[in-house]
Amino acid sequence: MNDKKDESKKKQLKNNAQKEKKKLDKELNQTFPASDPPSRTRPGHEKEKKKDNDS
């Protein structure tokens, strides 16, 4: 039974990684050739995201 949970978790992590990559690719395409990088590539962007969600 744990094997099924582990496999499900691995699939979920892989899907999340693929979604994040697609989001980043989309943002990069939208900002090119601008000099400012997408916000998700900035260090600490996760902290800002959590602050916004806590409000």
From TrEMBL:
Residues 1-55 are annotated as: Disordered. The lineage of its organism: Bacteria, Pseudomonadati, Balneolota, Balneolia, Balneolales. This is DUF4023 domain-containing protein. It comes from the Bacteria. Residues 1-10, 17-28, 43-55 have a biased composition (Basic and acidic residues).
